[in-house]
């Protein structure tokens, strides 16, 4: 007999906003006029909970009696109704279930409840098989969700197979070009084949060994467009300007850029024309002329900060004002809610890792026509209406939970956004300058992983967002989608606002793109990282997944060994998990171990090449 209890919760008719919206969508957008009514119920499966705690949770955690109806084990519906349930894919973060577990533990801290959730839809009316298929496809995004049956599981406790050791690519360093190209194609990498040859040359001539799967994935992540801006750093050669109305002002501006380039880089052979240099050269010229004296400079680059004199209670003091924007075009395209939510969360994380409190945001997006008929949707894409509405919900959900004011929301509609959406979140933050230290990482320093646990959500997000989007993307990119956990980031905000905590932090990096390998890897030239110490959401993760997973709301903090215990106490006060996972070393190499074996051991100098030099005619 199953020990799992099942609960269905449904909004009372006057409060069933989601059900009414779905009914309007089915009738209007999908054009299915035969639907008479829609019901939406949240399903909770609960295990490891006592009778007393369960009874309390029914009307305090799972439901709100004034607005909800609650059904235990099953609910009634007509035989003619179309009924189906939807759950998150395994490995996807379910915030509702996570929050429910935390709330139930408040009722009894000695219990360890396990909770899973799903959403059950009841559609009333005469439907053809084609109608049913259209409705389920409207309700289920295969990137993060799937249809689930009604049979109650025997247990919610998951068992995971022990992962295999990390694979070594035997014979890699001596491979001929044809089989090497075949291997490259099979790995679905974001890097170019030129980068792959660059790696082979390194292992053959410097390491004299074959690489591990983790090393290849780490290089692919480090050198991805998302982490290292490969496209913007590609050398532009043979630049030509096509005829057109704006040819003269564009060409004149480019010629002015070349003049400034020659002026600033006279005698240097390490500089070349690229989009990144074009974007930054005006700032470099202003800086040389002494016009950017208020810019904060340090090796810790989280967000752009300027030094501003602020008058508080009649006394002037220096504050850091930080600016950051984040684009999440790819994840929002394939999973609108999570993509837009983590766009805002990611923008917040950068100034937050710089110990700034983020207080203001704006959202600028671009979409094709959201009123277009669903039948006109481009193959392999979600409908524009679905993307537009779900991403708006995702952004506002994260912003409301973390308590952030968004002063500007602007959406630009243009047919060219039909291939890939534009999703930008931009934020401002501030902190008193006295509370922020910008120090170097010294050998012996300890790196603490702070915040959320690591899961498969976000594996390959940096490389995924650096690849072209194809008709198969909705089916293959599920693991790349990240689910935000705003309450955890709010805890990080509270912790970092305490000056006594901020004063202990020598250096910090957020776990945006790249996971452990990049977030910790960027903090020092020499590192020894122990993946066995990284807290996991569930068992079964292998060394590669632990190294590159981008699970959200985590920080890597560099601490002097004498300050570690005190920092851990502060983290515990904010109910944040903190774990010592790495140590700074003298030798400039990135070394990552798992199960007591090294799965990555590469030189910092090679990692910092950012791959093979790329060139392009434009």
- Proportion in β-strands: 15-25%
Q: Kindly, what is the distance between the CA atoms of the first and last residues, rounded to a whole number of angstroms?
A: 68 Å
Architecture of the largest domain, CATH level 2? Alpha-Beta Complex
- Please name the CATH topology of the largest domain: Phosphoribosyl-aminoimidazole Synthetase, Chain A, domain 2
How are the strands of the largest sheet arranged? 14-16-13-17-15-18-19
Indicate the percent of residues in helices. Answer: 25-40%
Output the radius of gyration. Answer: 26 Å
The average pLDDT is 92
**Low-confidence segments, ≥5 residues, pLDDT <50?**
460-467, 471-479
> What's the shape?
globular
State the name of the first-level CATH class of the largest domain: Alpha Beta
Descriptive tags:
single chain; 34% helix; six-stranded antiparallel sheet; seven-stranded mixed sheet; 618 residues; alpha+beta; 21 helices; globular; Phosphoribosyl-aminoimidazole Synthetase, Chain A, domain 2
Mind sketching the topology for me?
Layout: E1 5-11, H1 17-29, E2 35-47, H2 51-60, E3 68-72, E4 82-88, H3 95-107, E5 114-125, H4 129-139, E6 145-148, H5 177-187, H6 193-207, H7 213-222, H8 225-228, E7 235-237, H9 247-264, H10 275-288, E8 304-312, E9 315-327, H11 329-334, H12 336-353, E10 357-367, H13 384-402, E11 405-413, E12 422-432, E13 446-451, H14 461-464, H15 473-476, H16 486-496, H17 499-502, E14 507-510, H18 515-519, E15 527-530, H19 543-548, E16 554-559, H20 564-573, E17 578-584, E18 589-594, E19 597-603, H21 604-607, E20 615-617
Parallel strand pairs: 7-20, 10-11, 15-18
Antiparallel strand pairs: 1-2, 1-3, 2-5, 4-5, 4-6, 8-9, 9-12, 10-12, 13-16, 13-17, 14-16, 15-17, 18-19
Helix pairs in contact: 9-10, 12-13, 12-16, 13-16
